[in-house]
Amino acid sequence: MKKHSSFSTGGKAEYYAEPGNAYDAINALEMAYAKGLSVTVIGAGTHLLVSDEGIPGLVLSACGMKGMSIKGDLLIASSGETLDNVINQAIDHNLIGLEEIAGIPGTIAGAVTVNASANSRSISDMFFYADYLTLNGEIHRRPFFYDFFSRGTFLTDCLILSVALRLTPSRASAEARERKEKYVEKMYIPPSRRFSGEIFRDSRTMKASEAIKLAGLTGKNGSRAEFSEYQPNSILTYPGCSSQEIYTLIQRGRKTIKEKLGIELDTSITILGSFRDEL
Fold this sequence. Notes:
The chain is of the alpha+beta class.
């Protein structure tokens, strides 16, 4: 699974499938059930930490689902489209509103799953509906008026097929492009390093990035994983780093923040497989 996680760590999947559409995904599910396999759904791996021991059963990835369409102020993107590409296409079609969350890595489905947020803007502000496939092979649509974002995640045990966003028509596409590039630069991560999406969710009293900085957790710590000095709520990894090292850093970070600041942070990333609790 090293190729399917931005950490570039993790063991092997017993089976792996990357369907290009809902029909292929249903066929993969039928195969898994015929073999009695468990099914794990993933996206681009930006918010994914996989155990060094790997994942049993079938891993079903949404990364192969591509394509976009625009109908008036509605942009509909397949789940495997990167957030960056969705933002670019929106601006190209004189639709604005997504620029503030530019620079966040991963797919549009991943952004919806964790309600990606930056610069006082969230994907939930523009969400209109999502079509998804449950693991029993049924396709459903979840419209915007279902308040699932208040629970922190979209849904568990499903494969998002496509996402529809309602954006704002505007002729000021050049200005929108400039704003987008400004926010991409703000989210800058040094090249040639593996990095994650956001590790912790913000608490009610403090942003996770601020808590990490105040607790003195950023920078080198003697391991091959560290909280980024550029984006404190992300983890950078160095060659040879294991998933266990990342997991231990996350656990140590939570413990330190609780002891120093009295704040309990929940993890934003998905953790798959078994890990040792070394604290």
